[in-house]
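Exam review. A common question shows you a sequence with its structure tokens and asks you to describe the fold in words. Practice with the pair below. Do the first one on your own.
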Amino acid sequence: MKYGMIATWRMAVEGITEAAKDLNNGATAGDAIEKAIKMVEDYPLYKSVGYGGLPNENCEVELDAAYMDGNTLSIGAVGGIRDFKNPISIARKLSEERFNCFLVGTGAEEYAHKNGFERVNMLTDRAKQFYEKRRKETIEKGLSPYDGHDTVGMISLDTEGSMVAATSTSGLFMKRRGRVGDSPVSGSGFYCDSEVGGASATGLGEDLMKGCISYEIVRLMKEGMTPQQAADTAVSKLHDELTRRRGKSGDLSVVCMNNKGEFGAATNIAGFSFSVVRDGEEPQVYVCDKQENGVTTYEPASQEWLDAYIKRINSPVTFD
């Protein structure tokens, strides 16, 4: 059995690169995905996940994360947890629980404390600066405060054929205190079945939840669709249904991988990126075009695009 990993966004490529080395040496899908997501959570310049994550309306960092074992269908998740490092590890620990496997707010924090997880102030000076800049723009320019919702979602396949899905995010920028999106919600932000495959989503959680999109992708793969067909079908149908019923659809982007290591990605926005690594292949970042006529196209990121990305995330926060 060959191994593989797929993840939302460029920010995941370093994590899956390192985790793939472990998979190549026989690591489990669970250990690999936890390692990869922790690398994203720990990097302060990735401002939508973990340390340095985007704060809520009160300038507090509330984090959501989830973990699903595709062999047993066990799930662990946390929502709105504050001041704890690596919520993905807390979610994985919760997946071992028969009951009470999804905890939020103070309950999640009490569980993390009792189980020895590291308490850390996750709000950085840079995140505070972003908050102040957006608040100023919202008041003076009438811009939406709710821009910024880049969840890291991953699927991992190991050499034994086991699969795991996991997510981690700080959620919608300047969200209301206590808001939880799709990321830690089973079937919406993630779903995984080792007998079929796994999927994960990123975008506007309030709209992604309306279609249980990750479960739908796995269901379509189980019915015989390729990962790419399943991803495109799920995004196209949900986008069209939301547009018909509500007049518009928010951002919908997904990645998926089946238990053969074949992958797919789909999006209704331009510029969505994702990262892939598979047995015998170098890690690769892809950039998508907006889906047209139910089909998403993507190509490897150019060196110019990759350089611009590094420059952008390292740029200081400036005020007009």
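Now try the second one, then compare your answer with the model answer below.
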Amino acid sequence: MTLTIVVWTLCTVLGAGLAVGAAVWLGRSARSVEGSFTPQALTFAGGVVLSSFVLVTGFLIVGAWQLQSVARSHAHEEARVLAKAYARAGELAPQDRDAIRDRITVYTRSVVDDEWPDLAKHRASPTSWEQLDAVQSALAAVPADRREAAYDATSAALDEVYVKRYARLADLDSVSPPILFGVMVAAGLLVLVYPPLVGMTANLRNIAVLGLAGAVVGFGILLVFQLRDPFTAPLNVGPSAFQAALDRYAQLK
């Protein structure tokens, strides 16, 4: 990670050095020395600065939105398989059915109440793990003489729950790279500093226009910051899929 940061820094410094060196070297011509204002050059430089901010911001927004979509999809997949396991457990013998279904319900409630707040801290809930393992233990306690097709179907569905849970928890590492967020902030600052730097007249109209540009840049940075982590409020993925699974349990008999 340290080596990567060093390489990125060196490339950035090298690019800036080449641009400054070219400007100094090529700026020795008589026209460049005598000229005081070059609209084409200023327009080009301003376009590069603005394009950099738009490119990085757009990339981060699209990437963060995809991360949110993946995290939401994994949550719905796990909730769907939980409902499937609950339905399959309904075909077990009455004494086994109630025990398994109660454990599944407890686990689902634990995900909503215990685990989801922990996801914002980038960790899984030990309580939820214990409740899911309790479902497995209750299923393993079913006597061999009552292990028929319904038992195998319930066991297979529970194995799927474990797979989907691991996939959902893997999303805890799905955060946009911090270095790109830093680049976006730097590009946004350059966008706002560039007009005054090249001599923009500080009249009321120009100041108002620059203020509006600052509002757009600030909103874009805030939006990316809120979207970069799929489990952090206020724009986070919620436990609605598991709440819907609890509603589904009430419908199954």
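Model answer, second protein: The mean pLDDT is 82. Residues 49-251 form one domain. Full marks require stating both points clearly.
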